[in-house]
Recover the amino acids of this structure.
């Protein structure tokens, strides 16, 4: 039987029969437009009774049909003018669907290749990573829009860009049209360390309108450097009501793991997180994203330096990390440059906010190596000045108290940072922590950025309890204070009601002084 | 004479004369495009001298002309290539305009049908409602864009969605093209209880640019659950400068009514508000909107449950309300479900903010009943947890004082709510009020959310003065405090300068303790 | 040789050779689209192998080629179907490029005409103004998008609108299509008195995506009433990395001038600022913009009243200013109306925020004189009420202290203004300053709006030091306070960390009392 993908110029004006699925129906003030998919290609076809009147009113979106139609060429595209259309009978339909699925599965098969760097952790994660890669490929080849959400820090951006560099060329290839990479793909940074409800409402609002307006399928959402925790549950469940697909690539502590699974897994189509296999957060999202990118697209370019960059930003250490860094060093990105670049990405992401800024971010990640160098040179000078200024203020206004076992450093957030200006308190408390730690190499240090309704924490590696333990204890003792928070073991934040400010401070400092 | 609406395929290549109005002229780098309307249909026509040069430079937008042209078909649309064009002489033009108006008036005639529920109040409001329905129909059939602004609470959304469900199918029918419902219609929630100046500037900015760019007419603005008060005057007057049409469907106290009219009426094209006929706010915007929707479109679907929902949210009571509820109960929406749904809509609208979110909101209002059920189940569980947490805080931090006649409950807003998180203080003060009232069934209660520059109030039905009386008194005694505010009789808010905080508190508490 | 600009209908179906530059290549799912420019006109051409496959894969964007192709007409546009394409050999290419440049230079030549008003200052600035005008014309005639950024006050808007009125008709003429003025031009107000980093990130993000997506050139950025200071450097340098052109029209103090140049000049394509020639800020941006508009387009309309309006808003005085005002008076805009109009523009710009609002702003500046009158009448009444209310509060809450040489007036900003409402503290401190000055005609007055991390200043002309001197002194004495700021000599603001609030107040008041 004739297939859409092998129509050629000799077929023009000829009439053929096709088995296909109706992906979309759109009424214009002229003909009715049917978008058809036969497993090989998507094609536009028209039905016409009279201007503005729905042709073949018995046909519905999603139906599998046999059509008979004449081939035309318009503006260099092949189109079909439908003469007859009949739903497939159940036997033919079953066969057609099986065939479609087989085809889709074949196309979706990821590349099961060796990792850039040999690592036991990665090997343990391989099946999970292949699952993620397969879901992403499936979305591409079934014309499902991809929405990539990632944490708005250097590690999250790293994961996002590595994946983007694998995905976009395949989308371009699948649709053969430059504009496809704007229609079938969108990336968005997210400030919070989880998929906020406000974000999912926004993403879904646009998706549903596109689904209704352009006949798009429900999207595939990729959550990178985010998505593993219970805080993500509400957003993920909401996506599932709309038939969206959701995959997660994360390395944050996801809560208690039982039988390699956590709470979100019930709702995810695929999930990779080192904690699921009993590992820690060392293999950061940028590394996982890069390796998955290679499983998606075996011809992906310009991503081999990304693991080293992400690991630098997230301060990951270990043998595998060193090997990733060797690779970056070899292509001329030494440790100093990687560190500067990580700072520049942090800085830039602060101003990029929720925008996609595809081209700008792409250049910053080295799509244009020359522009990257120029930007690092320009921005890093400026960043250094800001750091200097901020650290001067921090050193002047911080309080350092000997809490017994630990040195306690506090900075009142609003008093030492300016709204809308970089660095914000999270960054500044990190810098202050490093400064005090360097001055007192023999002491464990706990540094706190104090806000009216939050405390940002940075603790030395030697501190023998985690941010989440503090949160649990405060929650128990101040049940009316809406205590919340999270993060990594020694770096995170606690949120509470302004009304509970004094209670939280009293309890926290008592505890910290009590060691 | 040949009319646009009865052109058919046999007319292709033939040349005819038409009388029509030039709705739009657009220069391309090829031909000049004229959009023509002859009272039956809008049609695209072209004039061509050479690429990029204005054809028929003597013609102007808005002119009534006789044209002679050849019919073409392009992409399934009929088009006319203009050969000759002459302005109608004054006699012909008069006749043509009269004919257009007659036609428009006929089409605009609303459906004067019985209400879903028999009610004296509604009967009194019938002429006003018919006027509103007529203006809306007139806009649709004259290709005027409709911008529907509604209050961002459940009642406002209810009015908006009921109207939307009447309007969109007619727009689709009028233009025969799916994209028309995005080009000729836009809905937008508005947070403030009136049409803010910032909002009208935004709406007008986009409208004027569309008018200049695409030749659109000035829009019809529908204000639902908003729009009756003097606070709306500036925005409405601004709209009128631009020739926009404005209709209002509201049930808030509109200020002093004289001869069935209030201050805004001078500038409105139609207005319905129960207060204009001496009634109160019981017949909420969702009820009025639903009944008007039926006058606009006698084939409107899925709106019969909306009055019960709106009334539940706005706590409207009475015989008519009970009858509306019976209708909802009959289609399987019991009172518990309606209450939960109302809470979910409140919650969702908090995160939808100023977005249209057409599809999402539509589903929440039952366009997809299955999705609605799933969303209510998902969201309500989450909302309950938030309420519990917030109420725990409120009970802990609230101050309850026996003010003599009334119990005075105060909550410092910033201390018990978190910025950007649901519920905000307005909702929380309501919950706290209900809690204290239930504990003290024999007492009148006045509950206040205290902000640095505002006080949100909720008062028992038994309280014998209104929020606006309090505002009037404070304004008189603290003239320098920029006191403002409004709302319903026993629920509203007072705004003031932070500088006047202490004076306002002192005076207010003195007064409340003085009863 | 045949040129794009002189193709006509007789050429259809004929085959010609052309020398041209490939401005853009876009792959569709049908043919490959090449946008070609031969120095006379831009034309769309197609290459086709099979649907979705790249034709002439050896061709690259930016290449200069000889093509042979057949002329078609589609939808009234001429198109070329490319049959053969070969890169020009180096001799031919050199000649072609030289020819393109010569042509571009001829077209870019500005109109060296007398100023509206004779003035020594303007004469001194003429060469700089011609440079700016030339860069703008060059951008228009080489299809380079223009992004006009201007300060969001009346003077900044004045400069922006005058330039816009010169630029848009030329863009329309260049492209012959109505939509060009939306594709090749964008205007945006900027709140800060310099080009903020957050703004340049946003502007560049959209520009780079347009460059990648639509093959646009890097834009020309015009900074009006902004752009001359070191605070603009980071943004300007960033633009230059992307090959953008940047011109500045400003009258703020640009820092130390050496040999007619300041720090930004190294990175600008053209720059005019009266300080560069040793003058002061009297010739405001609105005047400079209007005179440059006339150099860009000798047929520009409706701009002769703009200098008087801008000067009124910026309180510029002098002989030249009087002459500009005479011109406005003559066309019926008396001083009272100009003042009111300036207030209305200030008010409107407060709500327009970062939007372009092209049509709305255009009407406010008199594109539709009738609408302008109506708006002034409507808005000014409202503004007056707001001023009255605000001044009542200011008079009640201000502190006036006899500081010895000067009267010191202070207003705590948050206490006397409402967030999001007009007037904000900058305006209010100006009004308060005028009020106290009028009450005390014999005294020098220093008025301060006090915020938690800023102080807004207005000082009498008689005060013998400038805002920047205060900033310098505070910076020296409180190095840890992140002191910043700027503005004009006697009106500006100081920013600092909230942590430094008390120190700044102590030092500042000591100093002011010490005179």
């Amino acid at each position: 039987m004739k297939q859409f993908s092998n129509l050629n110029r000799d077929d023009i004006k000829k009439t053929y029969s096709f088995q296909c699925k109706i992906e979309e129906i759109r009424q214009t003030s002229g003909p009715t437009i049917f978008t058809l998919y036969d497993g090989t290609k998507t094609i536009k076809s028209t039905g016409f009774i009279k201007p503005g009147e729905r042709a073949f009113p018995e046909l519905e979106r999603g139906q599998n049909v046999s059509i008979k139609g004449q081939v035309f060429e318009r503006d260099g595209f092949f189109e079909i003018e439908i003469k007859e259309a009949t739903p497939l009978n159940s036997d033919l339909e079953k066969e057609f669907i099986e065939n479609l699925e087989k085809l889709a599965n074949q196309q979706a098969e990821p590349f099961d290749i060796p990792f850039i760097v040999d690592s036991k952790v990665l090997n343990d994660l391989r099946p999970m990573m292949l699952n993620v890669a397969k879901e992403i490929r499936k979305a591409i080849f079934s014309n499902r829009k991809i929405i990539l959400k990632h944490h708005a820090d250097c590690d999250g951006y790293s994961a996002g860009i590595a994946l983007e560099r694998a995905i976009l060329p395949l989308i371009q290839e699948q649709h053969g049209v430059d504009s496809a990479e704007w229609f079938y793909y969108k990336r968005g940074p997210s400030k919070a360390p989880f998929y906020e409800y406000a974000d999912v409402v926004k993403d879904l609002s646009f998706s549903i309108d596109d689904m209704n307006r352009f006949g798009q399928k429900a999207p595939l959402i990729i959550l990178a450097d985010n998505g593993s925790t219970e805080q993500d549950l509400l957003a993920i469940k909401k996506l599932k009501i709309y038939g969206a697909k959701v995959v997660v690539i994360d390395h944050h502590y996801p809560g208690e793991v039982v039988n390699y699974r956590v709470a979100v897994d019930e709702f995810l189509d695929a999930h990779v997180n080192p904690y699921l296999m009993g590992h820690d957060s060392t293999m950061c999202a940028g590394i996982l994203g890069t390796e998955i990118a290679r499983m998606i697209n075996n011809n992906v370019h310009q991503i081999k330096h990304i693991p080293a960059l992400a690991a630098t930003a997230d301060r990951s250490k270990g043998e595998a990390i060193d090997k990733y860094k060797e690779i970056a060093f070899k292509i001329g990105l030494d440790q100093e440059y990687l560190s500067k670049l990580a700072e520049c990405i942090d800085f830039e992401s602060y101003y990029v906010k929720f925008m996609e800024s595809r081209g700008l971010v792409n250049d910053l990640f080295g799509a244009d190596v020359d522009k990257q160098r120029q930007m690092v040179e320009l921005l890093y000078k400026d960043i250094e000045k800001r750091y200097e200024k901020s650290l001067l203020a921090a050193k002047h206004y911080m309080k350092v108290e000997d809490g017994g076992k630990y040195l306690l450093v506090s900075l009142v957030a609003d008093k030492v940072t300016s709204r809308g200006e970089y660095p914000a308190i999270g960054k500044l408390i990190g810098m202050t922590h490093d400064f005090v730690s360097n001055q007192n190499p023999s002491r464990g240090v706990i540094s706190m950025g104090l806000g009216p309704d939050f405390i940002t924490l940075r603790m030395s590696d030697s501190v023998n309890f985690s941010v989440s333990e503090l949160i649990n204890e405060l929650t128990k003792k101040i049940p009316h204070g809406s205590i919340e928070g999270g993060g990594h073991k020694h770096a995170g934040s606690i949120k509470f009601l302004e009304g509970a400010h004094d209670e939280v401070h009293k309890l926290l400092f008592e505890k910290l002084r009590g060691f």
Chain A touches chain C through 43 residues (CB under 8 Å). The first strand of chain A starts at residue 15 and ends at 27.
